Amino acid sequence: MDFLPQNINDYSEQHTTPESDLLKKLNRDTHVKILQPRMLSGHLQGRYLAEVSYMMRPRRILEIGTYTGYSALCLAEGLADDGKIITIDVNEELETFTRSFFGESPYADKIDYRIGDAGEIIPTLDEVFDLVFIDADKMNYTKYYNLVFDKVRKGGYILSDNVLWSGKVANVEEGKKIDKDTKNLLDFNKMCHDDPRTENILLPLRDGIMISRKL
């Protein structure tokens, strides 16, 4: 995920509003106690997600892929007074850890944390979403995008994380074998770019975020 020189990344973080004490603790504890801590959004991306939320003041956010809750807490910051974020994750082993941080936050009553298969839960949601953040298993990105699309309001946004896939999508060599996740993200990125129902930008922040605005 490290596309920029370390000194540029460090400089960017030094000139970005610091993490709250709770987010700093969550960041630290995730790296110490949880497997695959690189899945955490982290400081720079977290502040970006928070700023998007503050700019939109959404009433409803859907997050697909909670992990330890860092991005959900950042997205919750900008919610409208009557706003809510529904965040879904299939990994029940992380539930106690994640709920403990949600419970410590000032947004506890705005976070609807659900454990289960997002592919089964999304069709049951009777909501219109202002913002969707997809950050789950890469093989099902297209499925999740299609499941949520009609539930996103006109002018709403779908943000899809990890679309640069550690740079692999930009380093495909003709004739060489491509792993399944990379091939799936290549297809997903093309689908988003070619979707006439949206305008999009692929933002090279951290591991890449595809931003799709519903027309």
TrEMBL record:
<dbReference type="InterPro" id="IPR050362">
    <property type="entry name" value="Cation-dep_OMT"/>
</dbReference>
<dbReference type="GO" id="GO:0008168">
    <property type="term" value="F:methyltransferase activity"/>
</dbReference>
<dbReference type="InterPro" id="IPR002935">
    <property type="entry name" value="SAM_O-MeTrfase"/>
</dbReference>
<keyword id="KW-0949">S-adenosyl-L-methionine</keyword>
<dbReference type="Pfam" id="PF01596">
    <property type="entry name" value="Methyltransf_3"/>
</dbReference>
<keyword id="KW-0808">Transferase</keyword>
<protein>
    <submittedName>
        <fullName>O-methyltransferase</fullName>
        <ecNumber>2.1.1.-</ecNumber>
    </submittedName>
</protein>
<dbReference type="GO" id="GO:0032259">
    <property type="term" value="P:methylation"/>
</dbReference>
<dbReference type="InterPro" id="IPR029063">
    <property type="entry name" value="SAM-dependent_MTases_sf"/>
</dbReference>
<keyword id="KW-0489">Methyltransferase</keyword>
